[in-house]
Amino acid sequence: MSELAMKTDLAVTTDLEAVGAAFNEEQMLFVRKRTRDAIHEIASRVKPGMVEEDAVEMAKDLLAGLGMLKGWHDVYVRFGTNTLKTFGAASDPGVILGENDMFFIDIGPVWKDWEGDGGDTFVVGQQSEMQRCATSARKLFHIVRRKWATSGVSGKALYDFAIVEARKMGWELNMDLSGHRISDFPHEAIYKGPLAEVEFKPKPLLWVLEIHIRDPQNRFGAFYEDMLLADSYFQA
Amino acid sequence: MNQLPMHEDSAAANRFEAAVQRLDRLAADVTRLVLAPPPQARFRYRPGQFLSLILADGQRRSFSMANACGIDRPIELHIRRRPGGRFSETALSRLKVDDKLTFEGPFGQVNWREGRGTAILMGTGTGLAPLKALLEHGLAAGGHRPIRLYWGGRLPHDLYLNEHLCQLALEHTRFSFIPVLSMPPASWAGRCGYVQDAVTEDFADLHHADLYACGSGAMIDAARARLGQLPGFHEDRFLTDAFEPAAPVVRSSGLPSVQLFVNIHGTIRAIRGPLGATLLSALREAGAPILSVCGGKASCGTCKITVAEPWRDRLRQPARTERRLLANLDDIGPGDRLACQIPLTQETDGLAISLVCHATAKWPA
After folding, report:
1. Class of B7-107 in CATH
2. Is residue B164 a contact partner of residue B179, using CB atoms and an 8 Å limit?
3. Domain covering B257-355: architecture
4. Beta B119-124 vs B210-215: how paired, if at all?
5. Buried b / exposed e across A45-69, counting CB within 10 Å, b at 16+?
């Protein structure tokens, strides 16, 4: 057998969509709701004039109060130009949220045995381009999610589609944040790679779709992240 | 394998005396020491395990068996000469055939795992020894399971059993031998770089594969970091045997280090960690089975350890970030800390801790 023939492509769904012993659909959805609620609770406490580091501390205190501080990744609240930073990158220190500015939140709390993961972008004051960027991130998330819901395309094809759609809106998609598994903790024991590399149609409830778009002039970016789920889970 | 022994195991392990049967110079700095089967009792061991030679002054030096165990089979050890090494340089140079050596063992948790997927063995230098024992066992076990051995060195002469392994590969179609050089001469036609790079080039997916990594702690860390990125990588199927010089005062990085005593379910191993590193990175470099899902950000709690009672007041107390997370974790007991938040300083020399995160956690052999 040639060495290349030994390489397994990512078309095999069986293992990449495995779950751990504690996996429970209802609990996953419950943690999702708690995660979305926490994001909005954090956002409501972010005010112009805050330093980003203080906002991160506030977010961690709030999550600790909810029993959701334990996370599979760190807590991110990014202000202004730090919204351009990719996952895991250190923020520039001391950035203060302006009167007309934007910020995003990205949290991955683990509640009991189950992982949550979510992100959203918020704009303060009046800044139409930032507002358009934040709105685009949410819109693009749902455009890509509907593509997933209504077709049989793979994770890879979804992100190829997302790149094109982002450009149509005037933004660049950051492919370093391109979706991943979610499960009972820790999902990385099953698959820690990106959704954008899997060559099968991902199943609902097992993946999160991440959309991080950036201004082509590198002034700011917006982020939106939630589980891959059908429309009914997104109705208000 | 050349590391401090597992003291707790020692009490339970058997002690043997065996005669030197052969001494072969395999390379300028590698000797094959062959011990006759101990006459008093059969020395049974699993492939991948090691023994501890007891030196005249009571010190111990540990080496992996380089051949599979068998009735009346001699015991083969590969010993790299280390400048100033009490055994590898001083005692070994005086050793003669028929001399008697005392040893204890076997020790270690590495063992051949049955399975259908490819067994990927990777190692550098005398890290070949346990891999060779695993290979011999795997081939003798029969079946069709592919076995691939990646053996790395800097230069061709570092691969001191190259011809033997090439011959084995010719004799067994399911065995592939891949020598890898990090400083290859122009004439080298084989693979270049590091063993973990070669494995990554050959495998896009590690589902069903069992990985065995033997060599320096740095090599094992690099392999874990690299292969951990591949789909299908699972820590439970990544069996490691990190060897370090028995009594380093300065690590290869040139940084001064401190000694740490690490207890995993009653098995205590002494390791060293460089000053300025975190306890987490020292544990990982030593091959300790400790997770760090968040990458050392005090977020996930998977690197929780318990500080031994006498050390609890001597360590710098946790900062707010660590205290807050600890308060949010389940099953927190006295002395529990996050290894990612404990810097190694002169004051931590001799620190004693226990790993408590996982019931199945154990030391690699």
Report:
1. mainly beta
2. no
3. Roll (3.10)
4. parallel
5. ebeeebebeebbbbbbebbeebebb
Q: Which residues in chain A are closer than 8 Å to B300, comparing Cβ atoms?
A: 70-73, 110, 186
Residues on chain B touching A71 (C-beta within 8 angstroms): 294, 299-300
**Encoded tokens for A60:** 């961690």
Q: For chain B, where do the domains classified as CATH 2.40.30.10 start and end?
A: 7-107
- Report the topology of domain B119-242: Rossmann fold (3.40.50)
**Mutate which: B116, B120, B224, B294, vs A, most A CBs within 10 A:** B294
pTM: 0.56
Sequence spans of domains, chain A? 21-84+94-234
| Count, residues in chain A | 236
- Comparing CB atoms, the residue among B235, B295, B328 nearest residue A70 is B328
Q: Where in chain B is the domain with CATH 3.10.20.30?
A: 257-355
Taking contacts as CB-CB distances below 8 angstroms, the residues of chain B near A70 are: 299-301, 325, 328-329
Cβ contacts of A60 on chain B, cutoff 8 Å: 321, 324
Q: Does B207 touch chain A (CB under 8 A)?
A: yes
Closest-CA distance of chain A to residue B299, Å = 5
Cβ of A186 and B300 within 8 Å?
Answer: yes
CATH topology of domain A21-84+94-234: Creatine Amidinohydrolase (3.90.230)
pLDDT tens per residue across all 365 residues of chain B: 433 333 333 334 588 999 999 999 888 889 999 999 988 778 888 899 888 888 887 777 889 999 998 888 899 999 988 766 678 777 888 889 999 999 988 887 778 888 888 999 999 999 999 999 999 999 988 788 899 999 998 888 889 999 999 999 999 999 999 999 887 787 888 898 889 999 999 999 998 899 999 987 778 888 888 899 899 998 888 888 877 554 433 333 445 888 999 988 888 888 988 888 899 989 988 888 888 888 788 999 989 999 998 899 888 889 889 999 999 998 899 999 999 999 888 889 899 999 875 566 667 76
Spatial contact of B28 and B108, defined as CB atoms under 8 Å apart: no
With beta carbons less than 8 A apart as the criterion, state whether B147 and B174 touch: yes
One-letter identity of residue A163? I
Residues 6+ apart with CB under 8 A from B142: none
